[in-house]
Amino acid sequence: MEEARNFIDAFVQEDLSEGNRCYGMQVHTRFPPEPNGYLHIGHCKALTIDFSTAERFGGICNLRMDDTNPAKEDTEYVDAIQEDIHWLGFDWGDRFYYGSDYFEQTYEYAIELIKKGLAYVCELTPDQFREYRGDTTHPAVSPWRDRPIEESLDLFQRMKNGEFEEGKYTLRAKIDLASGNFNMRDPVLYRIRYIEHHRQGTKWCIFPMYDFAHPIQDALEGITHSLCSLEYEAHRPLYDWVVSNVSIPGIKPRQIEFARLGINYTVMSKRKLRQLVEEKRVSGWDDPRMPTLCGLRRRGYTSGSIRDFCERIGVAKVDSTVDWALLESCLRDDLNENAKRVMAVLHPVKLTVTNYPEGQSELLTVENNPLKPEEGTRQVSFSRNLWIEADDFMEVPAPKYKRMHPGFEVRLKGAYLVTCTGCVKDENGNVTEILCEYDPMSRGGDPADGRKVKGATIHWVDAATCADAEVRIYDYLFNDPDPDGAGKNFLDHLNPESLIVLQGCKVEACLAQIPMPEKGKNAESFQFMRQGYFCLDNRDAAPGHLVFNRAVALKESFKK
Questions:
Q1: Burial (CB count <10 Å: 0-12, 13-18, 19+), residue 291
Q2: CB 420, CB 435: distance < 8 Å
């Protein structure tokens, strides 16, 4: 057996060793998202741990929709969750379940607990029960705790039949009102809710609480290791109590907790992400500024970069906040290796090569990816009229300015050496055209006489063949690294410059031929030379209307 990579692996190896609880068994995990929103990068850590742990030990992992709370659940989210998990490269085979599949069995196990004297129907409201539950030194007892078993059975049946209004009764476990762990002080197992379920309709008006339903679902599916976030550590005694007191045959699952993933400059609460969507602070769940997987995919994040990110941050026992720049670094490493290089001018100004013959053009051969020669070359056209970046020219250069200015020679990427001869301005003094002359003997950028060129290499596109594009530059959605901190309203910290839209950009002609991305898949990524990494927007782009999203800048901001 391979060496344990983290403390979860160590626990699993311990359980699999001879004489222990899982000896000779197949490791079986599950990922149980609630379908009340789209998966975000925090869920990604959990699902990566669930699926990868099973993979490493030759086991299997179920996908189960935790749809026991129907208030915000919807099939839209069910479909999106499956799409995102497949995009990340994980699969659950034929082991796809809903928590609501087990409503009937869960109800029967609740009756079993009542018959054993381990559950009772209570009439206290939540506020009243908090009073009766007492504090850490003065426990109290619900006046309904010793309700006769037959009476609780009758009331619970009538609760199921819809005879009582919401809040009239709950079913509580009878455990230990003196426990120092308040989760063990007669927790609610069932409550009355008159709400339509996205799959069950109005069949049920009582719904099990997560702490009761989840361990039963794990046990029924034969889960060996129930991996969950650290917030459930205090709930583990209740988890163990449930699986020990209901008569589900087979192995009892073991709950193991790990630290949640926090990232700066964002929020991870699905409720708050939904608020951003519903209040139209963003364009939708897939807005490229959102931490949702569909938003990251639309922005240009690859599944490989996200899995690499989860691998780098590892599995910890203590909650911490990770720098978003680490996620950017993982993407940058991936795209630097795999993205084709193209030229795009985001703030164009005309460049006229005055000594290049009018009406003439030529094709230059350039590499698609210098790190992968096997990806071959392509041809780009060159002519008298080009576009370059406006900030690649200064009429009066600043000190050490190595780009285009009068009398100075620079390289046009993959083309020729050119020397600036002047510029044309409009009536307001704005530069509208830059003039230059090229060295015909420097094709490819190397002078025939071997002279050294001090100027920079700048990118360009041919004005005769280039395509127009809209380019969207994204920054952090929030301008505070901890927008959801104590005493803060996260909406007060929205970054007004989180999206900058550039119109009239000029891109290589080949980019007009790339296919529109398929739903649930990445668009092809490109490195716009000297600009960053970009991909076609998978929602707004259309044939004849190019829209590119910047996934990440070229500059590294994370200190490795």
A1: buried
A2: yes
270 is catalytic: yes
Q: What angle do CA 307, 491, 286 make, to 5 degrees?
A: 40
Max CA distance (Å), the chain: 103
**Residue 87 three-state SS:** helix
Catalytic residue among 30, 34, 411, 506: 34
Closest CA to 344 of 198, 533, 478: 533
d(CA 384, CA 468): 19
Query: In the annotation, is 451 catalytic?
Result: no
Contacts of 146 (CB under 8 A, 6+ apart): 120
Dig out the tokens for 66 from the structure. 């935790």
Query: Quick check: 536 and 298 in contact, CB under 8 A?
Result: no
Query: Which one of 133, 270, 299, 472 is the catalytic residue?
Result: 270
pTM for this predicted structure: 0.90
User: CB burial class (10 A; 0-12, 13-18, 19+) of residue 196?
Assistant: exposed
Per the residue annotation, which of 56, 145, 260, 274 is the catalytic one?
Answer: 260
Hey, what are 259's tokens? 């630290």
**Sheet of 96-98, strand order:** 28-31, 60-65, 96-98
Strand pairing of 377-383 and 417-425? unpaired
DSSP letter at 4?
A: P
Q: Is 55 a catalytic residue?
A: no
| Structural contact between residues 186 and 145, judged by C-beta atoms closer than 8 angstroms | yes
Helix (H, G, I), strand (E, B) or coil at 445: coil
User: Mean pLDDT of successive 10-residue segments in the chain (560 residues)?
Assistant: 82 94 95 93 94 96 91 84 96 95 97 98 84 66 92 98 95 91 93 90 94 97 96 96 95 94 93 95 96 96 96 89 94 96 98 96 95 95 97 94 96 96 94 96 86 92 97 97 94 97 97 84 91 94 93 75
